From TrEMBL:
Its EC number is 6.3.5.-. Keywords: ATP-binding, Ligase, Nucleotide-binding, Protein biosynthesis, Transferase. PROSITE patterns: GATB. The gene is gatB. Heterotrimer of A, B and C subunits. The keyword Membrane does not apply. This is Aspartyl/glutamyl-tRNA(Asn/Gln) amidotransferase subunit B. SMART domains: GatB_Yqey. Allows the formation of correctly charged Asn-tRNA(Asn) or Gln-tRNA(Gln) through the transamidation of misacylated Asp-tRNA(Asn) or Glu-tRNA(Gln) in organisms which lack either or both of asparaginyl-tRNA or glutaminyl-tRNA synthetases. The reaction takes place in the presence of glutamine and ATP through an activated phospho-Asp-tRNA(Asn) or phospho-Glu-tRNA(Gln). GO terms for biological process: glutaminyl-tRNAGln biosynthesis via transamidation; translation. Residues 329-476 form the Asn/Gln amidotransferase domain.
Length: 477
């Protein structure tokens, strides 16, 4: 009988914080920008330059810690992690080893209806390194220091996950908490959320952990899932062949679906950590911590319960809307502007989800104003446009954030409410289709649909459907 193996997984998740400036200087943290334009003597590691801590970084880190049930270290400090690499300008990274800001937390995940707690060992603050750009034509490597000094938190889990599904559920939960806090946009494709996967396998029933490897270069949830499956199979094959798994850092190539070794895994002593001499310790008073706590938002679980009670929305709608902070903000803004909850929910669940899928966009890419959606809903309710026209108007709002009133006027889309003009068109259609009149009188329901369709076509979709039905019934009966 073949042996049964289980995977043991822990994650190190790096999250770029949403501050406007870097952790130890006043340079911009904006994504993009020409290489080396968001830099100064501090973030390029010039001798004699001194770091000054950005207070907002501490507040974001503590807020994430509170939201993930951590104990906040009210006396914490920074340490130097020494390593020599071209994208690391000072030849050390300012991080936290001995007294990280958050410790001993946990988040609850739900996989296939089964709840589980994933423990968080610690969350610490640190600065990001620069970025190496490899030029294949010359074989040279260029360094861009724009990212150097961008504030990060590193969330280190305990090895509590056992499958790719649990890992994705954990990452999604973290992403949602952090987005709700506004602490980061957590865009994996832009590198503002990155996960390193520590993975080992062991025989089912054994207590002892196997030898773990760390996998880097994972910038999407699907790549993370593939990397876990691939590394699990690689380690099991080695063990089955009587070989040993080597503790090392591996790089995942998502195109080839294969990982290859980068370097042997260092331990803390290899980095020669010592307390950062240029930064004073951070003292978080009870008052400051209470202030951070008082600013914590309503998180997803609380929102779901409130939406059900307050608006009576279906559970499916609630789950979709609360899954993304952008959709939640859009929904709540529309309601504040006077739109009915179910009506807004219908537009989100229908046309917004459809257009996001068609255009391969994330919800966070939505840029139209809630006011224009509400204005369009009010135009439907007042009879200024019908629902068919509204779909066309909404596409223009979605793409270009147009004012629906102006767009309807300029494109001649206003509903025709002139009863006399409408009656004239309908009389002509009825006179030209005697066979359908006979069908209608013989009780064939399809005939009515035919007349409505012909009228809407003649009116270029701009007639009020209720008025069309009413006039048709009068004439036919």
């Amino acid at each position: 009988m073949s042996k049964q193996y289980e995977t043991v997984i822990g994650l190190e998740v790096h999250v770029e914080l949403a501050t406007k400036t870097k952790i130890f200087c006043g340079c911009s943290t904006a994504f993009g920008g020409a290489p080396n334009t968001h830099t100064c003597p501090v973030c390029t590691g010039m001798p004699g330059s001194l770091p000054v801590l950005n207070k907002q970084v501490v507040e974001y880190a503590a807020a994430v810690g509170l939201a993930t049930n951590c104990t906040i270290t009210q006396y914490c400090k920074f340490d130097r992690k020494n390593y020599f690499y071209p994208d690391n300008p000072q030849n050390y990274q300012i991080s936290q080893l001995y007294l990280p800001i958050c410790r001993n937390g946990q988040v609850e995940i739900n996989v296939d209806g089964r709840k589980k707690n994933v423990r968080i060992h610690e969350i610490h603050m640190e600065e990001d390194a620069g970025k190496l750009v490899h030029d294949p034509s010359t074989g040279n490597s260029l360094v861009d220091f724009n990212r150097s000094g961008v504030p990060l938190i590193e969330i280190v889990s305990e090895p509590d996950m056992r499958s790719a599904e649990e890992v994705i559920a954990y990452l999604e939960k973290l992403r949602m908490i952090i987005q709700y806090l506004g602490a980061s946009d957590c865009k994996l494709q832009e590198g503002s959320m990155r996960a390193d996967v520590n993975l080992s396998v062991r025989e089912v029933g054994t207590e002892e952990f196997g030898t773990r490897t760390e996998m880097k270069n994972l910038n999407s949830f699907s790549a993370i899932a593939r990397a876990i499956e691939g590394e699990m199979e690689r380690q099991i094959d080695l063990i089955e062949d009587g070989k040993k798994v080597v503790q090392e850092t591996r790089r995942w190539d998502d195109d080839k679906e294969y990982s290859y070794p980068m370097r042997s895994k260092e331990d803390a002593q290899d980095y020669r950590y010592f307390p950062e001499p240029d930064l004073a310790p951070i003292v978080i008073s009870d008052e400051w911590l209470d202030e951070i706590r008082s600013r914590q938002p309503e998180f997803r679980d609380e929102k779901q319960a409130r939406y059900k009670e307050q608006f009576g929305l279906p559970e499916y709608d609630i789950n979709i809307i609360t899954e993304d902070k952008t959709l939640t903000d859009l929904f709540e803004s529309c309601i504040e502007l006077g739109a009915a909850a179910k009506e807004v929910s219908n537009w989100i669940m229908g046309d917004i989800m459809r257009l996001l899928k068609e255009k391969e966009m994330e919800a966070s890419d939505i840029h139209f104003s809630p006011a224009n959606l509400v204005k369009m809903i009010q135009m439907i309710e007042s009879g200024a446009i019908n629902r068919k026209v509204a779909k066309k108007v909404f596409e223009a709002i979605f793409d270009e954030d147009v004012d629906p009133e102006v767009y309807v006027e300029e494109n001649g889309l206003k509903t025709v409410n002139d009863e006399g003009a409408l009656r004239k068109v309908i009389e002509e259609i009825v006179a030209n289709n005697p066979k359908s009149v006979e069908d209608y009188k013989a009780g064939k329901k399809k005939a009515m649909g035919f007349f409505v369709g012909q009228t809407m076509r003649a009116m270029k979709g701009k007639a009020d459907p209720a008025m069309v039905n009413q006039i048709l019934k009068e004439i036919l009966d």
